[in-house]
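Journal club prep — side note

Before the paper discussion, L.F. wants everyone to see what a predicted structure for a comparable chain looks like in token form. Sequence:
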Amino acid sequence: MHELVEQNARPKASEESVIEMDSFRITCDQDGVKPYYWPIRREEIVDAGSLIIQTITRVLGKGVLSGDKYAEGLVAVSVHFLREALSVFQANLLSERCRKDHKRLGLPASNHLWRSVFEGKEPQQSGFLQSLANGVYRPPFFKRALRPLRAFQERDGFTRRSIEFIDFDHDIVCVTNCPLTTAHVEQESARVVLCPLNEWFYPPATHECVTLFNKNVALELALQLLEELNMGFAERGGKLPPYLVSYLVNWLSEAYAWIDFYRERLRRNSDRLPKTLWAGSSGIIWSRLLAHAVRCKGGTVVSHDHVLGASYSEISPVPFTEFQSCDVFVTFSKAQADLYEQNCRKYLITGHMPQLHYLTDSLKEFAGKRMQKPALRSTKIQSKRILYVTPYFPTDIVGPAPLMPSIVAVDWQARLFCKLKEQGILIYQKPHPQCPTNPPEVFGTQFGVEELSGLFENVYDCADVLVFDWPLTTTFGFALQTDMPIVFIDFGFNRLPDEDQLLFERRCAVIRGWYDSENRAQIRFDKLSEAIDASFMKKDMAFVQKVMGTRSC
């Protein structure tokens, strides 16, 4: 399915080109996307995201300190509300500017938010609210009963057992395993039991939901939050119309109703709450709710950093997403802990600051997946093979660290691939495995790009050089630890302290990027070949050792 959306077209609008927004259908050539249109500067979205965080922190923080139970409940969904409100702001801004410029857009069928806003209708129920209504899928009993047998297969230090057989007074309960928890469990003397979140957040039964939405809740606080937020949006030229304000108020009210429902369930089953919880990522709503319940009962919650090296930034959103619901936060290195300490206070809704711990040399084996690439024989490209790691193609949802919009990303990548092809370079592309949209077919047909599947760790050494322009991913952290030459194209998604930027540039060849007046991503392409050759000399691992707490391969 594919829809055209026209905004107050002029009499001859039918003769104008439709501007395609579906990454798979976008047409492009050596000069980029044609026709191209993206009227929103990245700085506008980043600034709006900062406004939302500041407003949430101020309004909900004041409410929590005054004992407002609704504020306490809405803190649990603060990360998800940030994403929802920012996405609505962008959709409204795009709609208004398309109307002003008389542009017609071809929207992907998956872009429900954009389509609703362009038609002036209140959006459908968000995916997040639907996930709250669904709960966490719970496998059949026989599959859960077989869970302990996985300990013989995984051998990762965790004990696996059904919730009925956990000693909640003495066992540490962990709800997810990742490289950092795997490293941590090796240093822990107590038994650590891996138990999935569906043991607490199984789907609601029909009888449980009978009275759930018989009344509106948290409306007064939601209205106050939206009033202050929309004042800030108006100052930025993006004031939301009443129907979108109503949508976000209802979103908060419904989210609170579900939060209260699951918290009540946890209170009724408080005998199944551990004294010590390793909660995984607090960006996962179920982890956050379980963490809150454990802390209310007097237990201790430990969270773990999960994006190796990518959160090392002076503008990282991790303190906002992760620090609100834990007592201890474990990260990769002393440098990472120190940087969090320096920059996190403004993100704390209640002022609560968790203890910051780090594991020395914690990931030197990267959970058993790290590989060594044979030493290259030359400091220049021999077989001319480059692997470009494609960032996530976003749909109509925007996060606290916004990616390039799909049309901007495709336009940039088309010009990059064209220049690489002109140099006789064989191009591999590794898309994000969870990306809901695919790269354009023209990348393969016109530029000869070969798409790779599977884990990055298993395919990266098919190339001679890796090219990244998105650093906020575990893939980039993994790549830095290998001895692969890396070219990093810096569009300002990250900001390192000055001394660490110098260390970083001893590991990667860096090309500075920018956005022009049309919001196209640009670099000096005459620097590209020079950076590729220079990348073979960038072998210094001081940045890896300092920031990630790991040794090189």
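L.F.'s comment for the group: The mean pLDDT is 86. Keep this in mind when we get to the figures.
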